[in-house]
Amino acid sequence: MKLVVLGAGESGVGAAILGKKQNYEVFVSDKGTIAEKYKNVLLQNNIEWEEKQHTEPKIFNADVVVKSPGIPDNVPIVKELIEKGISVISEIEFASRYTNATLIGITGSNGKTTVTNWTQFALKNAGFNSIMAGNIGDSFAKQVASQQAPIYVLELSSFQLDGIVDFKPHIAVITNITEDHLDRYDYKFENYIASKFRITKNQTKDDFLIYDADNKNISNWLANHSIEAKKLPMSFSKLEGDGTYIENENLIITINNTSFNMPTTKIALKGEHNTKNAMAASTVAQLLRIRKQTIRESLESFQGVEHRLENVLKINQVQYINDSKATNINATYYALDSMTSETIWIVGGVDKGNVYEELLPLVNEKVKAIICLGVDNEKIIKAFKNCVEHIVETQSMKDAVNEAYKIAEKGNTVLLSPACASFDLFENYEDRGRQFKESVRNL
């Protein structure tokens, strides 16, 4: 059997390693340059690869093709593969074929990284042998190839879900759905929503879908489509039947006549969005029958995720916060909403169809200066020029942080919350966040 892997990033190389282990004849092809660390892994595993080109005869000779999530479905080589009847799947789909583990799949426009980490934290506290993978850390395929576990907690992006056929999580979570990545979905929001709901498409009545019932996009979709999985809604309003809700500052979970509750004031991470994240993680924990005391302790002591509203340093009584993971408007909305002092906001990058006007009320209320950090900042300037006195354009993180330092006064906050992807000036959002932290430490 011949396996061709398109794209040699984390997921592509993971799929190649797993393919080799499963006795496929593996060929890896990347149109760009392959990073040194991944080249070394391919060489060590004796896997054939090419970069800066796609050798079509070798690719069209495949029995199955694993496509990296970063490659859109409409690129010519992918279209041609599909026309030739060659199966093109995601690495998530490929990996799931070689494990019988219980799968917990977590998707959503925002919060999925926090929920994935928080769920894994609760499982570890309960002594479960579980591995976290997917859109976070090591790829699912690499983990399946190297260390099998009885449970995988998977963060899943819409791009990863687009390439599934039979992938079926026992527990699926949709944290929320807001407009994001519309450039990949023909600028049709309904295509993006449908992509997220692929997480439940193969679930049966023995599986569970945990979802935010307060999110109109989710509840509208569910009102118009039937699913097999048992639904477990989450809401800030009281629910009848099974689900998770908040009442009188108490988090209450009811599943099959067993209930769990704890005061929301004890939840470690603050803000309404984090209350929802806590609700999702604790509902998964309750489904897995983790002891109530362990769930409570896990909600009370979780420290959060790097690059998500991460306090970096306080310098001259100015707090610097790294929210580099905010790659869309909704994530930045949460960030600005949680600010309690005048804020210097660092924003910008590759725009995925953002409507910045949605942030106007918060910018009016909280922001005293905007520092643009992107190759093209025209839309940001146009949206906010009438409500903020200082708007500065910068082309590097060092310059952005230095400008913020000049403007900031005692008691202010400097917030990096870009609302955009990072690929114009940085490798990824982690690189952007680390450069921010380094620049702050060098002040």
From TrEMBL:
Protein family: Belongs to the MurCDEF family.
Catalytic activity reported: UDP-N-acetyl-alpha-D-muramoyl-L-alanine + D-glutamate + ATP = UDP-N-acetyl-alpha-D-muramoyl-L-alanyl-D-glutamate + ADP + phosphate + H(+)
Domain Mur ligase C-terminal: 307-420
Highest taxon listed in the record's lineage: Bacteria
UniProt binding sites for ATP: 108-114
E.C. number: 6.3.2.9
Compartment annotation: Cytoplasm
Enzyme class name: ligase
SUPFAM superfamilies xrefs: MurCD N-terminal domain, MurD-like peptide ligases, catalytic domain, MurD-like peptide ligases, peptide-binding domain
Keyword rRNA-binding recorded: no
Sorted UniProt keywords: ATP-binding, Cell cycle, Cell division, Cell shape, Cell wall biogenesis/degradation, Cytoplasm, Ligase, Nucleotide-binding, Peptidoglycan synthesis
Pfam family, one: Mur_ligase_C
Lineage: Bacteria, Pseudomonadati, Bacteroidota, Flavobacteriia, Flavobacteriales
GO molecular function: UDP-N-acetylmuramoylalanine-D-glutamate ligase activity
The protein's name: UDP-N-acetylmuramoylalanine--D-glutamate ligase
